[in-house]
Design goal:
Elements (H helix, E strand, L loop, with lengths): L1 H6 L6 H8 L3 H18 L6 E9 L24 H13 L4 E6 L5 H17 L4 E5 L5 H9 L4 E3 L7 H7 L5 H13 L3 E8 L6 H14 L3 E6 L16 H14 L9 H6 L3 H7 L4 E4 L23 H10 L10
Parallel strand pairs: 1-2, 1-7, 2-3, 3-4, 4-5, 5-6
Helix pairs in contact: 2-9, 3-10, 4-5, 5-6, 9-10
Bound molecules: iron/sulfur cluster.
């Protein structure tokens, strides 16, 4: 079947997707080889996109069941310091980075969004060719408009799961419909949009993952992702098993085949569950790595946004995995 898949002679029907998702060992290696071929045809420079991640706040109005954020004592919350954010972006720029991801919990207050707009303006002024990606959750339409006007280039808003019932259980303060409306709005506001799912969520079936893949194939966002579920300490899902690394890698490879031109990150959650997992993500067709340099860690004394136990890749790890995958760093950061 994979031979036909690579020659384009077989369509990716739900039945085919199911078989491919379950492939392991030699069949899985063939799948990864097809995904790499697709990636290397679309990105012939073999350059990986490196994104410097800066966390600017862990306050959040959502209480997602899979996120440790809700377990953080209020006194440990931290918030945006606009001067420090701009300094962090300039520091990343001086390191040679040209893509920054500014992320926080979902805080739809103007007291948060307006200083963020000013910071984006300063970053675009001081670092003109820096791509600014925001990951700030489902903000209000006028706030998204303000952030676009301030110069934000891209926005990541994951749909997490295309199963609306599962979505409601895991994100009880939100709905899938509302989320999808926001993602559509981002596209209409001319953001370069990123979205994706989580693989291995408790209650998620293989059919749900196939629906996720078909949804992504239909949407064709310029940035797509799949991360693997990691049970967060202290959360309602703490005792649930982690998602499967193998299944997540197969989802990533299929994302590459279904959305050939997309930037696809190799998530740090893979490395957290399996040392070497991020390198395997690159071998499965990913072409993006998120990095958190110590100097850019604004919340050093506080708990990280998602999970205190997660792996956070640094420059050394980045260089190692990119080189082992036979890929290249952008010239400025090599
Ligand atoms: S996953 Fe994001 S939106 Fe959900 S609680 Fe955590 S920080 Fe908030």
């Amino acid at each position: 079947m994979l031979r036909f898949l690579s020659s384009g002679k077989i369509g990716l029907t739900p039945e085919v997707l199911k078989k491919v998702l379950l492939s392991r060992e030699a069949e899985q290696e063939k799948l990864f080889a097809i995904a790499r071929k697709v990636r290397d045809e679309q990105f012939p420079s073999l350059e990986v996109e490196i994104r410097s991640v800066v966390e600017i706040g862990n306050c959040c109005r959502q209480r997602c069941q899979f996120c440790e954020n809700g377990t953080i004592p209020y006194r440990s919350n931290f918030r945006l310091d606009t001067t420090k954010l701009t300094e962090a972006a300039v520091h990343a720029y001086q390191l040679g980075r040209r893509v920054i991801v500014i992320q926080s919990g979902e805080t739809a207050s103007q007291a948060f969004v307006e200083p963020l707009c000013r910071s984006v303006e300063s970053i675009k002024l001081l670092c003109p060719d820096m791509q600014v990606i925001l990951s700030q959750g489902s903000l209000k339409p006028h706030q998204l408009h303000q952030l676009k006007k301030a110069g934000t280039d891209r926005y990541i808003l994951k749909f997490e799961t295309s199963n609306s019932e599962l979505y409601r259980k895991l994100k009880p303060r939100d709905s899938l419909l509302r989320r999808l409306e926001r993602i559509s709005l981002l596209t209409s506001l001319s953001f370069v949009v990123g979205s994706g799912n989580i693989v291995g969520l408790p209650g998620q079936s293989l059919d749900d993952i196939i629906d996720d893949l078909l949804f992504v194939a239909h949407s064709q966002w310029p940035m797509v992702s799949a991360s693997v579920f990691v049970p967060g300490r202290g959360t309602a899902l703490a005792e649930e098993p982690a998602g499967s690394v193998e299944l997540t890698l197969n989802v990533m490879a299929l994302l590459r085949i279904l959305v050939p031109k997309a930037y696809i990150p190799t998530p740090s959650s893979l490395e957290h569950l399996q040392p070497g997992g991020q390198l395997r993500g690159l071998m499965a067709g990913a072409n993006t790595v998120n990095v958190q340099d110590d100097a850019l860690r604004m919340n050093r004394e506080n708990r990280p946004l998602d999970s205190s136990g997660r792996f956070t890749p640094d420059q050394k790890h980045l260089v190692e995995i990119v080189s082992a995958a036979g890929l290249l760093l952008p010239e400025l950061v090599s």
